Amino acid sequence: WNLADSDWPKFRRDNLGTGRWPSYQIDANASPAGSGTIAGAGVHNEGATATLTASASTGYTFSNWSGDSNETNGTITLAATQHRSVTAHFTLNSYTLTATGGTGGSVSGAGVFNYGTVAAISATPDTGYSFKDWTGDGIAELNASNTTVLITQDRNVTATFTIDQHTLIASGGAFGSVSGDGIFDWNSSAPILATPNTGYSFTGWIGTGITNPSDANTTILMTEDRNISTTFLINTYTLIASPADGGNVSSSASHEHGTQATVTATPLTGY
């Protein structure tokens, strides 16, 4: 046979005379365990070229080889000239969690987390606001102010808050009317108006949060449910009877609106 030196490994028999080609084990491991797989390891004939390819598991990224190779490429080649051993190193991916809140509150929990982490997030409403819900992916409970997010990629979550609303009930007596009932946003100023019937007067408001309780036309600060009232007082009038010379006139001095006043005139002697 006319063989070149480069062909020799393909034809050389082992020195035991078994008829088998000399071969070598190429070992490959992933670190940490479960972080990836390596294709191409095993027994290779002497002189053959082994191609090893490292593939990262979900959530990991290939980093580098160690052992009989220090390459940083995911695919390497090794000559089967002896037993060889390599380790493929993978790193756990990290992702950014962005948590924001709209008007009316604050949120916590943003940060950088490893793949597979269950990150806690919390929404805290300001005074006068209530938490409504979360929007975003990977959130365990959208309607819970304190919940978690599964980190498998970059996440962006937002908390929504709604302003509280409060009920205003305004009532008056039988001798006038009041206006201002309704539902109002927290911390708003609700107008209230008391209008007495003819012959009656406004006496003042009873309740809390009223800007000017003695003013029939005023406002009330709605920081909670409010129940206010007013009463109306009948007007009284003074009757002054002034007789001319020659007699006397008598009558009660004070009279309520709408009443009949009795006036008595008594002449003097000679009149």
Automatic annotation (TrEMBL):
InterPro entries: Bacterial_rp_domain, InlB-like_B-rpt. Residues 248-271 are annotated as: Disordered. Residues 29-93, 95-163, 167-233, 237-271 form the Bacterial repeat domain. This is Bacterial repeat domain-containing protein.
